[in-house]
Amino acid sequence: MTFDREKNNLFTSWWWTVDRFSLLGIVLIICVGAFMVTTSSTSVAERIGLDSYHFVKRQLAYLFISLIIIFLFSLLSPITIRRISTIGFLGGILLLIFVLIFGEEVNGARRWINMPGISLQPSEFMKPFFIVLTAWILSEEKIYSKFKRMKIAFGLYLFLVFLLVMQPDMGMTIIISVVWGAQLFVAGLPMVFVFIFGILIVSGLISAYFFFPHVAHRIDSFLSTTGNYQAHKSMEAFYSGGLFGRGPGEGVVKQYLPDSHTDFIFAVAGEELGAIACAIIVLLYAFIVFKGLKRMLGESDLFIVYAVSGLLMQFGAQAIVNMGVALNLLPTKGMTLPFISYGGSSMLAIAIAMGMMLALTRRRYGAFNRLSFS
What we know:
Blueprint: H1 10-17, H2 20-47, H3 54-74, H4 78-102, E1 104-106, E2 109-115, E3 118-120, H5 122-139, H6 146-166, H7 170-186, H8 191-211, H9 213-223, H10 229-241, H11 265-272, H12 275-295, H13 302-326, H14 344-360
């Protein structure tokens, strides 16, 4: 399919300026996600008394909405993305406070807002909005001195982390902390402060071990010689699949793995599609991250550099955590595999992040008028 460059319309302009290779990588991962949820979720649905294709139909709806979100967000200008992120961050803070007061408690945590037909996890949507807002603050060198920018960014980070720890959601706190620290490093944070921040993260993890029983249980299970049930079944799936897999739909471990369609969907891929297919999935994630970073080479606008770096790091870090858990390299954590695991909030939030990334990496000609806080 070709589009005439001379035609001056919205879609043609978008097509010739968007990073089509990154877009292709995202679409391929979405297709893998649709396939994997179809093969992994039917046994889960039947086990809990639902229609066999309950999760499949919902996931296909989420994926369709995600494609629309990616396209719509990729049309936006950097200024509009800034404004939406600011509004989204403020709205997300209110929802996080609402969750702490009125959210339903599950296993000692309050993270979800239950609405008819859907459960919303506000912390998922905070990630892309907080990343872009931090990038905006760090790039405003004409308005604030470097020290003031760091102080404002640190204040917002502490407030957000406080709300997350109160839920508690340690996995989300770690991801946001790592990405936020990396953004500050890209913005020129001295190495001594990077070292101090690393010590603070480690100290926070140690404190979480002693103060949050569910964190201690997961770490103890990870460090024990026998491991936990889910990790054991996950590794059994990879061993069973070998290089080429047992075949689509032929996996058996998913019948016993409680989160086979969410946290451990990578294990189902390992059993049914094999190690080679899993390596291709890893390469797809790596391709999107490195292609997006390469797109920034020569970019002079600091806001775009900081924002795209953060969005891609969040995308890559979330994939690494999920696959690391499935391979028993990390303690279990309810972190979805982007665009592949079943889940509405996570899917839509990742779609927003990738739509923003595609928008900010579009080729633009002419000067870009920057919007300040003033």
